[in-house]
Amino acid sequence: MPPVTIESASATRRVSACASGLLAGFAALAVAELAAAVVRPEAGPVTAVGGSVIDATPAEVKDWAIRQFGTHDKLVLQLGIVAVLSAFAVTLGLFALRHRLAAVTGVLLVGAVGAVAALGRPDSVSWTDALPSAVGAVAGAALLHLLTARLTVSRGGAPNSPAGGADWDRRGFLVTASAAAAASAGAGALGRGLGSARGGDAVASRAAVMLPAAGSPAASVPAGAALRIPGLKPFTTPNEDFYRVDTALVVPRVDATTWRLRIHGRGVRRPLGVSFQDLLQRELIERDITLTCVSNEVGGPYVGNARWTGVRLAELLREAGVEPPSRGGPADQLVSRSVDGMTLGTPVEDVMDGRDAILAVGMNGRPLPFDHGFPVRMVVPGLYGYVSACKWIEDIELTTFADYDPYWVKREWARRAPVKTQSRIDTPRPFARPTAGTVMVAGVAWAQHRGIDRVEIRVDDGPWKPADLATEHTTDTWRQWSFPWRAAPGRHTLSVRATDRSGRTQPERRTRTVPDGADGRHSVLVTVE
Asked: Which of 52, 271, 334, 368 is the most buried (most CB within 10 A)?
């Protein structure tokens, strides 16, 4: 057996120091997760720091993240935060070999950053939100001190030089590290278990919901409105396939039995407070409405059509004594607030102009999924989601656009955001290789609250030709279309454009999503064989 040299022992010690830093970081996060399960899941350091990063990120970068990662953007952000923390933990572990007190202080400073981030979140309700980061940092700092102390003690218990010496306490280090890893894993598992149990009341409240029959049911979807063409998205988007774009790193689990909505503010003569059961006892309406995210690029996937069940929002506002600006009301903006602190601003006139603006409690015949706003969310046809579709809503304040800028307006998005006329080719997919002959080109077009009047297709630089429109269900839903293309061999570019009922046709020039939604025509390149 080769002798242990000072050089090899020093290298092993440095590797062990790196492992010490990682173990300390793991322990800090595990203990913080356990504490967050007791205090509030949203107060966990990764969630709090992640939320602060989202808030501070420029609109263009957010848009880029959504384009690149889609609905996985939050997971990517969380993994990125963990990766940065891991790298920092390794650095502190190495640093602790010579400057243990400074390294331990570094761990505590990271915890302070997490605590400040938690206290600064818009949904923070108490100083206790700082506890998960603080407690986790103390646990991580203590473990780092304990482990690195083992790296500078000989087998006999005498101090050893941090720069060399072959006779350090390997066995003591391994025993301590193994015990710490097991304890941290246990704390993390317990935290996840408590977090799941904490949301149990919300899950039970959703399972107990029996949606009453709508007093104003949706009209049946006409047979000719839903085309059966392979590759074409279905007319009604299943709940599990409906897009999700929001800033919530932890999906709120709200107990419907304790939920209440407050309506107050300028021009509200009779402030209201309503419970979930109050909403269910009112007349419910059912409507098929297409929702679109303002981050949806031309041809993008962030659009879906569902059957929403809920209460007319305009009726609740009138009950509170609210009048729209066109009738002398002093408020022109409705600010909706979510339980996670998100604020959205909606034109009062649009909510009260007769369109089917809904406080929704159901989606496609079932209670709202948690991802989509259970127990209650807003749905306003004709407006992009960031100004109209507040999920997990708990507060409605009447104010003015001049007096208040909601979350997205502060981040360079437009105050008012009517949905732009758009169309998309679903089939054939980009870079498809169809066989020469008749190829069915099909997709969807939408101009919520205006309706689609015409869809046209162009092959390469040829003339625009009318597509066959499916039967219109309502002006608030998208409209499917198809075009039988006699495809010749070779590479071809297929383009689509739509014209709405106001006479507006999609322009050729593409624009980005910021500040009020993408514009332009969708096209796909295919190779016919």
From this structure: 334
Q: Are 244 and 372 in contact (CB under 8 A)?
A: yes
Of the candidates 351, 339, 356, 146, the residue with the CA atom closest to the CA atom of residue 255? 339
Return all residues near 86 (Cβ < 8 A) that are at least 6 apart: 22, 25
Other CB atoms closer than 10 Å to residue 183's CB: what's the count?
A: 15
CA-CA distance, 442 to 258, in Å (whole number)?
46
Q: Are 333 and 346 in contact (CB under 8 A)?
A: yes
Whole-number Cα distances in Å, 288 to 6, 282, 393, 479: 74, 19, 21, 12
pLDDT of residue 11: 79
Burial class (CB within 10 angstroms; exposed 0-12, middle 13-18, buried 19+) of 463? exposed
CA distance 380 to 390: 10
10-residue block means of pLDDT along the chain (529 residues)? 52 87 93 91 89 83 78 82 90 90 93 93 89 95 90 59 56 87 91 81 95 96 95 97 91 95 97 97 98 95 97 98 97 97 97 97 98 97 97 98 95 93 98 97 97 98 97 97 97 98 96 94 98
| CA neighbours closer than 13 Å in the CB half-sphere of residue 296 | 27
What residue has token string 């706003």?
A: 373
SS3 content of the chain, % helix, strand, coil (to 5): 40, 25, 40
Burial class of residue 415 in the structure, from the number of CB atoms within 10 Å of its CB (0-12 exposed, 13-18 middle, 19+ buried) = middle
Q: How many residues are listed for the chain in this entry?
A: 529
User: How far is the C-alpha of 55 from the C-alpha of 69, rounded, in Å?
Assistant: 18
Q: Which helix (H) or strand (E) holds 101?
A: helix 100-119
Residues facing residue 262 across a β-bridge: 273, 395
Angle at 290 between CA 284 and CA 294, to 5 degrees: 125
CA distance 15 to 90: 9
Q: Which two tokens stand for residue 242?
A: 């409906």
pLDDT at residue number 41: 86
Task: Please give the model's pTM, rounded to 2 decimal places.
Answer: 0.86
Neighbours of 84 (CB within 10 A): 11
